[in-house]
Design brief:
The complex is a heterotrimer of chains A (146), B (142) and C (509). Chain A is 72% helix and 0% strand. Chain A is mainly alpha-helical and 146 residues long. Chain A is elongated. The mean pLDDT of chain A is 86. Chain B is mostly helical and 142 residues long. Chain B has a single domain, classed as Helix Hairpins. Helix content of chain B is 68%, strand content 0%. In chain B, helix 2 runs antiparallel to helix 3 and helix 3 runs antiparallel to helix 4. The two termini of chain B are 46 Å apart. The relative contact order of chain B is 0.10. Chain C is mostly helical. Chain C has a domain of 217 residues. Chain C has a two-stranded antiparallel sheet with strand order 1-2. In chain C, helix 2 packs parallel to helix 4 and helix 13 packs antiparallel against helix 14. The N terminus of chain C is likely disordered. Classes of the chains: A mainly alpha (146), B mainly alpha (142), C mainly alpha (509). Chains in contact: A-B, A-C, B-C. The interface between A and C is medium-sized, with 26 and 27 residues.
């Protein structure tokens, strides 16, 4: 892809706004359409786009595969951990009211924010992991034969 | 069965057609990737079935205004629960597809093909070899 | 928005229904985060043991017919309203199956370390334990939950990790990949059928909570939507439980999966699916509806009998021990289907007893096969010649497991077949009794074939084979002794199964 100048410039311009948009969808997810699933996929798209244009080696430098694996686990842990925290405070599992006793509505806010963050991290990591898993295989037909 | 009946149950007809299309592809195609595509169509049909269940006539998107006192009791909302369920099911579907494709990649690396017929042939050869090496005449694929 | 007025402070005992499922779920990502095989194993074992203790405590709590209900996130019904959230509902039936699943997992795990060291490359060990934990979580969740859609979610968690675990056998035989792929296609179709069924039930009743479903479905009377939903649920779950014509994924998956995985799955996976089927047939759907629908009986019983004979008959001709035992599993699932087909309390009791007894028996037998694979390098029957003398302890355990599989008096297998016979005689179907005995005779043939090879044939020359290591022998023998123990101490299994059957059938309506 060394010769596709326009493609490379456009992608360089796009990656940052995509990541930013992912964060927007992530943090507005509790009171408007959006949330962890969508944000995670959008964030993953930023990495995948970068990988498609600049090559797998480059994107591995930014987001190494071992880190992808740990992030996927971390997100799940964040979600489940939120539930356990409310459980330790004497409420039922994932009862966000536990975080601000006496004002459950605020607790809901905090709880859903953390949980969605966990979802977002895991989804982004898993999507990138899927891309790595497939892109890492050597193809039968190489680039010039197309 | 009147015309009205058919038209008023349109979502179910479409669901059935789509579901059977997907199912037929899974059953009839020998190519592993096509099978996965069929499975996806099959699952999508179910997603659409659920989503159409949640539609309330005249209902709008179930998003509440930020301030609870601004809620207008006269507004009808669609049922969001099926949508949420399907969000989960879509994630499951994505995971299944990814895993299926990953298995196909590995199968092609090991067997050199992803056509069911060829693979069955290779496997029955392996089975016959096992049986020759390990005794009894019968056995294997029964 | 949870009500601010009631702030229940719950102790650990109140949280048990949830902790059973959540502890292994938390351990799974921790395994990946630590990224160390030994720590991963310790975490897995600790989580499994914790689940076992929790589920034992739950079983004691509900043994007298009580029900423990737990609403996630405090979304329970308020002031007699309808349910909003997900409920975990533990009665004798789930607690019994929870104990079975966590028991087998806890016994299998010490064995796993040595076995997967031999069968799987070291790099994948952490991920193996992670997948194992997810599969374990999924199975426990399927059983613990009282929400119909939640069943599907947990079912897919366990299935997806099972496909990965089966595919890990590819290092020894590449056919594991196609076996996993076939299982993936069929398993997904089964799960999707189940979701379609749930969708129909939801559209007819407007609820997903099993308890509410069981109240509202009878009010609807004969409703075609409900009947369609019923059919989809039964077929979908039948596929997961490997009922006879839907068993095609089972032999391949069991044969090519790593030995530990096979032992764990054989003891738990189909059992969880059968439990869900029982729960839907007898609790969610109006028992009257099921009992009046003779069609179910006409469908299940012939297929069950066919499974008993066809499975055993195919098993007789196998040259590979794992595949032989897999086909025997198809036959044994037939006995459980037969118990359901009787549509009586005794029949369901027989299914529950057999669920437990066959679980421990098959797990023991597959563990023995794993030990043979470790020492002899293969599980083809001709390579096992004379192992009875070279691996006396392992082979003795195989004999005990085999006897239990046949149903010889004094073993666990006898008890479940005895209850099944009683259920048949209760209906005055003496010919059914004869069929049960006849199919057991087929089991004698395939078990004897292996015993003959193990003890009466000369060992292969030039090969010194040592006894299995202690870490494998102990789990094998715990299960083997359990096979005999539950052949005599019948109060526990039959008592628990009867309570379970009663809570499934009579308890609610």
């Amino acid at each position: 892809m060394r010769h596709h100048l326009i493609l490379r410039v456009v992608v360089k311009l796009l990656v940052a706004p995509i990541a930013l948009f992912a964060l927007y969808v992530q943090f507005h997810g509790d009171y408007s359409p959006g949330g962890g699933f969508q944000a995670g996929v959008i964030l993953a798209v930023a990495f995948i786009l970068y990988g498609i244009v600049f090559g797998l080696a480059k994107v591995h430098q930014v987001f190494p595969p071992w880190l992808v694996q740990k992030m996927a686990a971390l997100g799940v842990l964040l979600y489940a951990g939120t539930g356990v925290l409310s459980l330790l405070l004497g409420y039922t599992y994932l009862d966000y009211g536990a975080f601000t006793p006496g004002h459950p509505e605020h607790g809901q806010h905090w709880g859903i924010l953390v949980v969605e963050l966990g979802v977002g991290i895991t989804v982004a990591a898993v999507m990138v992991a899927i891309y790595y898993a497939f892109a890492g295989r050597t193809p039968r037909i190489n680039d010039e034969d197309w | 069965m009147s015309v009205d009946f058919i038209i008023s149950h349109m979502n179910y007809w479409l669901f059935i057609v789509l579901m059977m299309t997907g199912f037929y592809i899974v059953v009839s195609r020998g190519n592993f990737i096509k099978k996965i595509i069929g499975l996806n169509i099959f699952q999508s049909a179910v997603f659409m079935f659920y989503i159409s269940l949640g539609k309330v006539t005249g209902g709008t998107a179930p998003i509440f205004p930020l301030k609870l006192e601004n809620i207008d009791p006269s507004v009808v909302y669609s049922n969001p629960l099926p949508h949420v369920l399907i969000l989960t099911a879509i994630v499951v579907g994505v995971a299944t597809t990814a895993l299926g494709l990953a298995l196909i990649v590995r199968i092609r690396e090991e067997f050199g093909t992803i056509e069911e017929e060829d693979i069955l042939e290779i496997e029955s050869d392996m089975q016959a070899k096992d049986n020759r090496r390990h005794g009894d005449a019968m056995g294997g694929r029964a | 928005m949870a009500a601010a007025t009631t702030v229940p402070v719950l102790g650990i005992i109140d949280q048990l229904p949830l902790l059973v499922v959540v502890v292994p779920m938390i351990a799974a990502p921790l395994c990946v985060l630590f990224g160390n095989r030994t720590i991963a194993w310790i975490l897995t074992f600790a989580a499994s043991l914790a689940s076992l203790l929790f589920s034992l405590h739950l079983l004691l709590q509900v043994m007298d017919g009580d029900v423990v209900s737990y609403w996630l996130g405090g979304w329970g019904p308020k002031d007699g309203g309808i349910a909003k959230g997900i409920e975990y509902r533990i009665d004798a039936a789930n607690a019994f199956v929870l104990v079975l699943i966590s028991l087998i997992s806890t016994i299998v795990l010490p064995y796993a370390r040595r076995s997967i060291e031999f069968e799987i490359t070291k790099v994948s060990h952490t991920l193996f334990y992670c997948c194992y934990l997810l599969c374990f979580t999924g199975l426990l969740g399927v059983v613990a939950t009282g929400d119909a859609f939640n069943v599907f979610v947990f079912l897919e968690i366990s299935s997806l990790s099972t496909y990965v675990l089966v595919a890990m056998g590819a290092e020894r035989d590449k056919r594991a990949l196609t076996a996993a792929y076939d299982y993936l296609i069929l398993g997904t179709i089964g799960a999707t059928f189940f979701v379609i069924g749930i969708g129909f039930l939801y559209s007819a009743t407007g609820t997903l909570n099993m308890e509410e479903l069981s109240v509202r479905l009878p009010e609807l009377g004969t409703n075609r939507t409900v009947q369609v939903g019923f059919a989809f649920v039964v077929v979908g779950m039948g596929l997961k439980a490997a009922f006879y014509p839907l068993h095609l994924w089972l032999p391949g998956a069991y044969t090519f999966a790593p030995s530990v995985v096979t032992a764990f799955l054989a003891g738990t996976a189909t059992k969880a699916a059968i439990y869900v089927l029982l729960r839907f047939l007898f609790t969610v759907f109006n028992p009257e509806m099921v009992f009046n629908t003779d069609a179910l009986s006409y469908l299940l019983i012939p297929l069950a009998v066919l499974a008993m004979f066809a499975g055993s008959l195919i098993a007789v001709f196998q040259t590979e021990l794992k595949r032989l035992l897999a086909y025997s599993s198809v036959a044994q699932v037939g006995y459980m289907a037969l118990g359901i087909g009787f549509l009586s309390t005794t029949g369901v009791t027989a299914t529950m007893v057999h669920l437990f007894n066959h679980g421990i028996t098959k797990a023991a037998l597959f563990l023995v096969v794993g030990a043979y694979v470790l020492r002899a390098g293969t599980s083809f029957t001709d390579r096992l010649a004379g192992l009875g003398r070279q691996m006396p302890w392992t082979s003795a355990a195989f004999v005990i497991g085999g006897l239990s599989l046949i149903g010889v008096p004094g073993t666990a297998g006898f008890i479940s077949k005895w209850v099944l016979l009683q259920a048949a005689l209760e209906k005055d179907w003496w010919w059914m009794g004869l069929l049960i005995v006849a199919s057991s005779l087929l089991a004698v043939i395939y078990v004897w074939r292996i015993v003959e090879i193990l003890y009466l044939q000369q060992p292969r020359a030039g090969k010194e084979i040592a006894e299995a290591p202690l870490s494998m022998l102990v789990p094998i023998w715990i299960l083997a002794i359990a096979c005999i123990w539950f052949g005599f101490a019948t109060e526990m299994t039959i008592g628990a199964s009867e309570t379970a059957a009663n809570s499934l059938i009579g308890g609610r309506s």
